[in-house]
Amino acid sequence: MTLIHNKNLNRRNFLGGLATGTAALAAHRLPAAFAGPQDSASLILGTGKHRYEWVRGWGTLPAGKNYGSMHGDVVVDAQNYIYFSTDGKYPIIVFDPDGKFVRAFGEDWKPDRDGNGTHGMQIYQEGREEFIYLTSLFRAQCAKITLKGEIVWTRGVPEQSGLYKEKKEYRPTCVTVAPTGDFYVTDGYGANCVHHYNAKADYVSSWGGKGKSEDGKFATPHKAIIDKRGPEPLVLVTDRANHRLQWFTLEGKHVKTLDGTENDFLRLPSALNFRGEELVIADLRGRLTILDKDNKLITHLGDSGDPKKQGSNRITRDQWVDGQFIAPHGVSWDKQGNLYVAEWSLDGRLEKLKRLA
User: Fold this and answer.
1) What are phi and psi of 191, to 5 degrees?
2) Cα distance between residue 263 and residue 27, in whole Å
3) Closest CA to 317 of 31, 2, 70, 44
4) Closest Cα partner for 189 from 249, 237, 140?
5) Is 22-355 a domain of CATH 3.40.50.11260?
6) In this predicted model, what pLDDT tens digit does every residue of 32-50 receive, in sequence order?
7) For residue 57, how far is the Cα from the chain centroid?
8) Where do the structural domains in the chain lie, given as residue ranges?
9) Does the pTM of the predicted model rise above 0.85?
10) Distances (CA, A) of 192 to 7, 185, 219, 288
11) How many CB atoms lie under 10 A from the CB of residue 165?
12) Per the CB 3.0–4.6 Å rule, which of 73, 280, 294, 334 could disulfide with 330?
């Protein structure tokens, strides 16, 4: 398996969007990391040190509340509370690790009539206080808010970049904060670039742009995260529709590319989270992928093997199968190594995978 991209290698013609490529996916191998039928007492996913129990029915809302459409993210705070962003009536919903509802907030971030609401999130600690950095599609903004929802600041279209003629062209999907306090906003659904701001929230620079095979170019740079595993922190970006990951210096210089087009390694990498030196990837096409410190595969989790039920937000509840993902859009580990997943779903679907080893 070739993992680090070589520009001289031929690439297979994988799909660039969500609506094509079904025939190719039908030939992919069945998942090796799924065990247990739908009606078993427990569902165990993974192998070795990465074995997880799929917690049935996790995340119960009070009577009268519902998730609505979900096209967002999941993050965990220092107290081990779990925050999900949604496109529904309650833009941010908080649970404890047992799945008990804690609170909902974020009325400022309700979706527009087309259902475009709060998207990517990160929790970042500054001194003794934690803040949520988030993006909003319909407001075309990134923002810093408190864990209770008070707005600290917002930033709209980065006009200094010279990339946008109209507000609607800016479709930010994620924001991530570096140890310096600088932060990076991915315009995953717009100009296919990354915007760099300093710790004072002043615009610094932009890089990227639409491209297919060139290093430093993107097709849906959906999520970014800071990779601290090396001697210097790097900005790690999911180049989703190109089926790969790319790393950059904090100044935006390309460092390396992890090409996922061979052997069904990466399908549509949508979100990322680190726990120590291990990396979990929410793959929109129906599974989680866990990599080691060298970005080598440890395991895939929850792959149904059915391409017709992967990467779609229109799979109804009666078709959901415990132990099988449909469209993982956000993912996060907690302190104990449990995994929480936010799926792209019109009905709102989220899961907990309890770490067993």
Assistant:
1) -85, 0
2) 11
3) 70
4) 140
5) no
6) 343 444 455 789 999 999 9
7) 22
8) 22-355
9) yes
10) 20, 11, 6, 24
11) 8
12) 73
